[in-house]
Structures are given as structure tokens and as C-alpha cells.
Amino acid sequence: MPLALLALAVGAFGIGTTEFVVMGLLPRIAGDFGVSVPTAGLLVTGYALGVVVGAPLMTVLGTKIPRKRMLMLLMVLFIAGNLISAVAPVFGVMLLGRVVASLAHGAFFGIGAVVAAELVPADRKAGAIALMFTGLTVANVVGVPLGTYVGQHAGWRVTFLLVAGLGVLGLLGVARLVPELPRPQGVRLRHEVAVLRNTQVLLAMVMTVLGFGGVFAAITYIAPMVTEVTGYADASVTWLLVIFGLGMVAGNLAGGRFADRRLMPMLCTALGALAAVLALFTVTAHHKALTAVTVFAIGALGFATVPPLQKRVLDQAHGAPTLASAVNIGAFNLGNALSAWLGGLVISAGLGWTSPDWVGAALAASALGVALLSMALERRAASEPGLPGLPGLPGRTAARSSAAEDHDVLTR
């Protein structure tokens, strides 16, 4: 694998750390600012919504900037956001810092995924994307537990200062190792936007929102859940996050490997198993050992869907994948925001600390339903040329016409 993938993984490591570390520190942050834990959960929701908005916005703003330079600018924005969070005097300012940092997230992973795929042969693209996302998953084994430990002993502000330092390392890695790749000639913003009207691209993004939302419904409130229900001490949250991170690493690598072989069957299997495990978490959360096993399984099954979902979007986006790739990263975080909000609602309604697990199971099961619908439409389109898509959306013929138009533009 090219060294440039290592540089992208370093940037992903920093971004992954800041995204997930706040979950293990929610009770402490809430206490310092004098807000409730569900209110502190807005730090998760706000970050996720910032990614949703920032992914297409930053990608569009960067259409005339070489990809390497854009990746470097995004890392600078990420560093600034974490510094704001570290020195925030009130909760609102910290939330602002989270949003600033999040604006870099979607575009970095979206552009990075396209760059990663361009660096390797066609039959290794999902594996290359998975390798970049390994930085995100390893962050949950090393960065997040270490950040949680530091936050519990030296204060959460120190954690965010260290995360800003990780951003500096990511910036240096991109500057030194990522090659200067030429921008695609002839691909204009209208071609990128047109891809977003493709039925299969939109269905893949819906799968992303629902499937990844299932993971975060359970994990956002993992700290209060395992301390109040399971009986773990506060310090044990760090080790549970390590277990979650190990599951993420295993699932991400497995997802990348099998997605290059049988993408949709592998995706359906992971989503179905994820829904079942999340439902079981309402029971296993009452037992320490079973909780640890379940947390690992949620991480593994959830992140086994990341490479296939991202590759699915790139495959269906044809010759103009950059905006679609970034928007799909936003879709992951829209799922995070949706599930964090829904989880806070059911907790505030008095349904208990395990109630978000039921929300997660329902979201993952819905994602499986969308995946089956996508496969059915694809089969019908293959057997009936010219089959229209879903109401109001372009069908296979339109998608092929768009792809042909893009190809003509690229070859002129």
C-alpha cells in the first residue's frame, strides 16, 4: 500500500479521536458547565450536524483547490476547532468549537476516500478506503481511551489540547506523504450535483444514516449506561472504549476485505447482525462480561459497514465521486446526530439508560430493509432495461446517461 494511505490514516486518527472521546467525558463536561447529561449530548449532535453541513459545503468550496492542499486546509480548521473547545469558558463556546472542528471532518474523509481509491488498482479500492479509515478505528483503541483517561485525571480541557496536537501531526503527514494528484479535467460542479439524484446513491446514503445511527444510539450514552446499569466504575469506561475500538478495527478491515468480493451480501449480513446485537444489549447490559462482549460486537458490526457503504457510493457515482463521497460521510454523522437526539429523548422520557439500544436496533433493522430494497431495484433494472427509479428520482437509464455524459466530458 502507498505511504500516502498512512498519511491519510494519521489525519483520520486525529479526527476519530476528537469525534469519539467526548462520549467518555460527557458526565464530567456536564458537571463542569452545570448542564444535564442529555444536554451535554448536544456536543455529539452538534458535531455530527456540523459534519452533515460541512461535508458538501467544504467540498464545493474546494472544487478549484488541489486535493492535497484542500486536505491540509481542512486539518488547519480541525486544529482551530479543538483549541476553541479546550479554552471554552461556557458550554455554548465549547459547542461552537465542536462545530468548527466538525466542518473539516466530512470533506477530509470524503476527499481522502477518493484519493485513497485513486492510489490503488480497481480490485483493491475498498481495501484502500478501509486502510484510511483504520486511523479512525485505531483512534478508538488508543486515542479515545487515552483521551478519556487524561480527561478523568487532568481535566477534559487537556484532552482537547492534545487532540489539537494530533491535528498538527496529521497536517504534517499529509504535507509530506500525499502526492499532488491532478484534479479531474472537465468534471464540473453540475456533474457532481447530478450524481446526487441517482436512486442507488441516495439509497446507499439512507443505509448509511440508519445503519451507523444504530451504532451511536447505544454508544453515545455508554458512560452513564455502564456505570448506572452494569455497575462498572467510572475508570472502567476507558477499557470498554478500548474494547469498542478493537471491534471497530476488526470490523473495518473485514468489511474492506469482503466488500471487494461480495459487497451487498456482506453489507446485509452485517446490518442484520447489528440489529440483533443492539436488541440483545438491553439484556446483556445488566452483566459486566456480556456487556464487554456486546460492546466489541457493536463496534465490529457497525464498522464492517463503513468500507462497503463508501465504496457503494463511489461505484454508483461513476465519473464524479468527490461530492457524493463527502456527502456520504455527512450521512454517517447525520446518523450519529439522529441517534444521539433520539437516545436523549427516550432517556429524558424516563425509559431508562438501556432504552437507546432499542432505538439503535430499530434503526439498524430499517437500514437492512433499505439495503434489500436497493438490491431488488438493481436486479429489476438489470432484467428490465430502462426501468424507472423511485418516484421523482432518475432510474437506471438516466443514471447510465449521466455516466455516459460524464465519460464524454472526461475524455474530451
TrEMBL record:
Residues 403-412 have a biased composition (Basic and acidic residues). It is a multi-pass membrane protein. PANTHER family: CHLORAMPHENICOL EFFLUX PUMP RV0191, PURINE EFFLUX PUMP PBUE. The chain crosses the membrane at residues 38-61, 73-96, 102-120, 127-146, 158-178, 199-223, 229-251, 263-283, 289-309, 330-352, 358-377. This is MFS transporter. InterPro entries: MFS (IPR011701), MFS_dom (IPR020846), MFS_Efflux_Transporters (IPR050189), MFS_trans_sf (IPR036259). It comes from Actinacidiphila acididurans. PROSITE patterns: MFS.
